[in-house]
Design a protein that fits this description.
Helices cover 44% and strands 16% of the residues. It is α/β, with parallel strands linked by helices and 334 residues long. Strand 7, helix 7 and strand 8 form a beta-alpha-beta unit.
Length: 334
């Protein structure tokens, strides 16, 4: 199994990316090889003579920054680590590609080089969330700000296959993010989507209000990219604000400091449970190849776990089974 890894993508690149690759080699029981894609001289500065033979380098002279237009990277920076890494997958020199870099560039370049799974209208991007009621995937979170009911149906199907195959959640329940639980709530888009999901998916359980995202029975949370991106960014911002408020209160009152010491183990356990590093990245669903998008602030641990997600996606035939799942509903997809 060969994984192409964007060594130049992410806030902590290349050091964190390289260390994540080394950790994955050390902790994987599979026959794993990793190709670090990026500037060879810079990558070599973080490697030693004891670097495992399973690690190799594919030189790419250009780096995609967040200021680049993701839709134009394939032409504007053809020798970038993103383009070159995805070419390795296209040319069958690698089984998967992982990047913590420019999500838009990964999406656009994946579509250009790998194409879509047959009959998929639009690929989507999901975020895996750990909750007290089990793992969930919110999909889409930004790839498709506008979507129609047929596309939202496909998002639900693809995310369900991902949870089943990669996360081991059998027969996942599907919910539609909406402003109310009643079928009559929401815009015309969401009313029509409700009807379509109800008629096509036996595991559809109805509308889910945003306040119930973490404790509802649904494992797959379907929405368009505008709604999903707004939700996930609000959640990230609120968690940071809440954490800073707690730290501020503890800092200024002695009795709070004493109490904080007593509950520190519980706080650490909660932090670990919801830490994105524990899961790593998520595949671009609908792309005809394994392309994993990781968090921009990925640490070595997050990169290692992204590599494990890629391995599982390959072993569980994610692409082929998404294709099979989509084909079952061709009669309602225009």
């Amino acid at each position: 199994m060969i994984i192409a890894l964007d060594a130049m993508g992410g806030d902590l690149a290349p050091q964190a990316i390289i260390q994540g690759a080394l950790d994955a080699i050390d902790n994987s029981s599979d026959d794993l090889k990793i190709i670090l894609v990026g500037h060879q001289e810079e990558i070599n500065s973080f490697l030693t003579s004891s670097t495992p033979k399973q690690i190799s380098i594919h030189h790419a002279s250009e780096v995609v920054t967040m200021n680049d237009d993701g839709s134009k990277v394939f032409k504007s920076k053809p020798d970038s680590s993103i383009v070159q890494g995805l070419k390795l997958v296209k040319d069958k020199h690698a089984d998967a590609f992982i990047s913590a870099g420019h999500t838009g560039a990964v999406m656009a370049t994946s579509l250009f080089l790998l194409g879509r799974i047959p009959h998929v209208k639009r690929p989507c991007l999901g975020v895996y969330i750990k909750t007290q009621t089990g793992g969930k995937i919110l999909c889409d979170v930004g790839a498709n700000p506008d979507a129609n009911p047929q596309q939202l149906l496909q998002f639900g199907i693809m995310a369900s296959v991902y949870l089943n195959h990669v996360e081991g959640i059998k027969k996942p329940q599907i919910g539609l993010i909406n402003i109310g639980e009643e079928p009559s709530k929401g815009s015309e888009l969401y009313k029509e989507t409700f009807k379509l999901l109800k008629s096509e998916l036996p595991n559809f359980i109805g509308n889910i209000e945003s306040r119930n995202l973490f404790d509802c029975d649904a494992n797959v949370l379907v929405c368009d990219g505008f709604v999903g991106n707004t939700l996930i960014k609000f959640a990230e911002g609120w968690m940071n604000t809440f954490s800073n408020l707690i730290k501020h209160k503890i800092k200024h009152k002695i009795r709070y400091k004493i109490g904080a010491g007593l509950i520190k183990p519980a706080l650490e356990e909660i932090k670990n449970q919801y830490d994105y590093e524990e899961h790593g990245g998520t595949p671009l669903l609908g792309v005809n190849g394994i392309a994993i998008v990781s968090h921009g602030r990925s640490t070595p641990k997050a990169i290692m776990n992204s590599i494990f997600v890629a391995q599982e996606s390959i072993k569980q035939n994610l692409i082929q089974d998404i294709s099979s799942g989509i084909d079952k509903h061709l009669g309602v997809i225009n």
